Amino acid sequence: MKLGFACKFFDADFKQPFPFRATTRTRFLSLGKDERIKLLDEISHANLHNFYLNLEALAELTPDLRMMRIGSDMLPLYTVPEATELYKALLPDLTPLFEKCGEFARANDIRLSFHPGQYTVLASDNPLVVERAIEDVEYHALCAKFMGYGKTFQDFKINIHMNGKAGFEGFKHSFERLSPEAQRMLTVENDEVSCSLDDVLQARELCPIVLDIHHHWVKEAEFIRHDDPRIALIKASWRGVRPVLHYSISVEGLIPEQGYPEQAELGVSKSKLRAHSDFYFNDTLNDWALSFSDFDIMCEVKMKNIARDRLYQRLLTRA
Fold it and tell me: pTM of this prediction?
């Protein structure tokens, strides 16, 4: 079992030694062409350099901890039309840096992924939203392809939610418009508001299903078990690749520090229960998450790799 973290790597002082940089669309558009090129070039080079340093840090850890989600700002503002055009001149110098990162990750068995944002909705009933969602998925797929991924089924994970008024049929129609590489990398997860686990399981013939156990609990008030019949369907959707689940818990103070919280007894709205905690402070829930022994776990927690490392100690204790 690998345990991963999302986007930000913290050192022992809770600082980021290898941060990703970003910029705003407003700032970018306020600049002249030469300044725009310089800004995109500087940030992209810095991000790829720091990403490689992050990979080097992961390679020094036990293989169980070599898993991370990459921030989406690798190439800042790539899908903004004014920036997309400028990147054509920048990519020849950036591509070797991508290749270096991908080669290092594969050589050191580091499992990588992207998670486009909440506005990437392939199942929207708004055609313009769908167009932007496809552009965003393809941007993430492009970065992965530059690193040498997208060649085989699930050699890289690009995860999105399936929420959207067009439902599964809308998702299916949009999925079929994606490039073959993006289709091979895409996964879909349940959410805590509009799209249940049963909803996303409709997509299991198209792409792998990522189980988010916290989302499932918030939406359904159920602690799904590792022997639930739906788990077999989820694993089958990965076609032999080790599946991934997402694990988070509610914010400190909203749920007890031990035991399975009962939503009816908490007196807390679902909207508040959705927010992620700083650390995994409830070992009952930790043991529940770790009971999914056939899965790798993406730790969605605010203290990132530090909280993940503490969960790993729990895993070693269980072992």
Answer: 0.96
